[in-house]
Amino acid sequence: MSTPTGAPSGTPVGAPAGAPPAASQRAAQKARTRRALLDAGLALLEDQSLSSLGLREIARAVGVSPTAFYRHFHDVADLGVALVEESLDGLRELIRAGLAQYGEDADRIDHAVDALAAHVRAQPEHVRFLVRERHGGVAPVRRAIGAQLDGFAEEVAGVLERDEISRGWTRDDLRMLGETYVDHMVMTASAFLEAAQGEGPDEEHVARTARRQLRLISLGRRHWMSESPGG
């Protein structure tokens, strides 16, 4: 049967003019289902660890079959790895932009702490997931978090290397500095999350403490002397 005049090629007979092709509709539906599975997994992780979460529980929350789950993820660990990437991408961009934009340590510190506090307020579920699963029982997710944080530390080291104060620093020293900043970021994010949950010091106290700690790191950086290899 020929396609009616004026209907785009591939448009089913009787479909409204300008309707998206069936393949595009299927792709959009697949993307929506994947998004729903990620959101459901994250919501279910509020009160439990990933190691105790079953794919049937996630599928049931979305209203799809376990078979449908497998069209998007190999298993729950695979979904967890996707959540790792999603949880850290935005935060890495915020911190990276601040390091590149500001040259003075005080400005960088203020931006980093403010950006971290805002990120935790906006995405507490993602932060809770990262903090809990960083040392959790699902090895692929634990490794994914470690790899993401390692890459982040390398990026931070690369930015700090361009500072005048870093002249003469060894690559190992720069890497150590990057790791120090990233470890502090994770610790501070965890503290902000506890504050939001009414546990421990409030957000203002956490921010003030984080700034003081970062200033201490900054001061130590100015007086650091690289050791000779094997020293």
Account of the protein in words:
This protein has helices spanning 22-44, 55-62, 66-70, 76-101, 105-122, 124-133, 139-161, 171-196, 203-222. By secondary structure, the protein is an all-alpha fold. Helix 4 packs across helix 6 and helix 4 (76-101) packs parallel to helix 7. The longest helix is centred in the middle third of the chain and has 26 residues, at 76-101. It is elongated. The termini are far apart.
How would you concisely characterize the structure shown here?
With 231 residues, the chain is mostly helical. It has 9 helices and no strands.
Q: What coarse outline follows from CA principal-axis ratios?
A: elongated
| Alpha carbon gyration radius | 23 Å
Largest sheet: none
Helices and strands: which structural class? mainly alpha
Query: Low-confidence spans: pLDDT under 50, at least 5 residues?
Result: none
**Beta fraction:** under 5%
Q: How many separate helices?
A: 9
The count of β-strands is 0
Helical coverage, percent range: 55-70%
How would you spell out the order of helices and strands?
A: HHHHHHHHH
Mean pLDDT comes to: 88
**End-to-end CA span:** 82 Å
Q: Any key phrases for this structure?
A:
mainly alpha, 69% helix, single chain, elongated, 231 residues
Which secondary structure elements does this structure contain, and how are they paired or packed?
Blueprint: H1 22-44, H2 55-62, H3 66-70, H4 76-101, H5 105-122, H6 124-133, H7 139-161, H8 171-196, H9 203-222
Helix pairs in contact: 1-2, 1-4, 4-5, 4-6, 4-7, 5-6, 5-8, 5-9, 6-8, 7-8, 8-9
